[in-house]
Amino acid sequence: MTSEIDIEVWVPDLRFPGWMDRWHQQAAEFSRLHPEYKVTVTGLDFFTFPQYVTEQAALGNKPAVAEYYFYASHVARDTVDADGKPLFVSISEAVGERTEFLGEPSVLHDLHPAFRDYYTLNGDLDSLPSVGTTSLLYGNRELLDRAGVDGLPETWAEVDEACRKVAALTDGPSHAITWSNHGTFVQQAMAAQGGYFVNNRNGRDGRATTIDLVSKEMTAWVEWWNRLHKDGHFLYTGKIPDWAGTMEAYRDQRVAIRISSSNDVNYMAHAAKIGGFTMDVGIMPYNDEVPYVGNAVAGTSMWLVDGLDEATKEGALAFLMWMHNPTNAAQRHKDNSFVPITKSSYDLLQDEGWFDAHPYHSITYDHVIEYPPQVTGRTGYPPSEGALFGDFAGAQDIMVHAMGDVLARGADPFDRFVKATQDAQKLLDDYNEWVSTTARGPVPNSSHGVEYWTDVEPYTAQDLENVVPLNS
């Protein structure tokens, strides 16, 4: 009897309820469908995952496939094996003109352009997007109606007006709006204004060497956010990032609006149900004083290790295509509110009546990662080529702590972000020096980014019901 061919898949444990259970179920199901293969998925620490893969690769230990969080994409590109060669091969190169693997159809042609483009560099799709998110605005319909706010605000000026109306309520919430102090919203604000974090077109035209956290786009965002806070409209819990506290405030109707990730849709719907009000969902507001470019995307992607023997490579690619088939991609959306990563999975959900029964789930695909025609006057998808640079996580850590000093301690926004730029530049310089070293040691500054992720784990429905309100 022929031995099974092992396919090792390493993934960061995102710690969503049942996250690793689903991975193990998928591995078992694929192995059942293709009994000549045995897929084993190993969940590793989210914070240290890139560091671990880099260290193991230098020792000659490597999986067939590894999943990276989007801001670690540059680390994946720069990781080398024990011979000093790039650890990963691009998905587009590995697939070539093939249309199926072990009978599993290729999905490359079916990927939503916003996610395909994010992981494409110099015309090469380096990795296969697996989880997709963006940012949304969630409203309390009853509170907004009482305040006389029609619809949901879509611009910063409309948010200002909505906040003033909510504040005028005699028995209204303590604040009008909140969101977590997290780097994803900084990214969205920059992207919507067409701003870049780093030089060389956000690291897309060449390796980034300088970072700027006092650009006009960043300054506009920081000043607007700080003004909302100083005017008493923005609820800052004082914690970084505090996904929990801002969700509690929405649930307990201490705010009328919360901005959060699109993968929060299920949790937010449950929060509204507990709070006894109607949830509205819309786009993340943009700066109406400059042209609106469109939202950025985030998520994870799957990277294929180079140099696999042909049988292992065939099985690994078949597994990647299978896990992205319409049924599996649609189920991933249902479980965790992630954006349907392919057009076929979206069509399946639509044909099943999923969006008719859950209309707030369609907003991301229809009106965010697609251009909102009512806003831009054009159709298509936004340029979602996010920033690529070393120690992105560490830079985000620096940004959010700088904003925390502005909001909680009254630091001067410009001076504080000048200091943040200097600190982030040091991280970037250290990273680029690491890349230029022939005999690379551990990825530098690997501990950065951990502190502000400390409550990344989301709620289960039961957890959400048992959360103690902040004001108790």
Salient structural properties:
four-stranded mixed β-sheet, six-stranded mixed β-sheet, Extracellular solute-binding protein, D-Maltodextrin-Binding Protein, domain 2, SBP, 21 helices, transport, signal, Bact_solute-bd_prot1, disordered C terminus, globular, 472 residues, 14 strands, alpha+beta
What topology emerges from the helices and strands here?
Layout: E1 5-12, H1 19-33, E2 37-44, H2 49-58, E3 65-69, H3 73-78, E4 88-89, H4 91-95, E5 100-101, E6 104-105, H5 113-118, E7 120-121, E8 124-125, E9 128-133, E10 135-140, H6 141-146, H7 156-167, E11 177-179, H8 183-192, H9 199-203, H10 216-230, H11 243-251, E12 257-261, H12 265-275, E13 279-283, E14 298-305, H13 310-323, H14 326-336, H15 343-351, H16 354-357, H17 363-368, H18 373-376, H19 392-409, H20 413-436, H21 461-466
Parallel strand pairs: 1-2, 1-3, 11-12
Antiparallel strand pairs: 3-14, 4-14, 5-6, 7-8, 9-14, 10-12, 10-13
Helix pairs in contact: 11-12, 14-15, 19-20
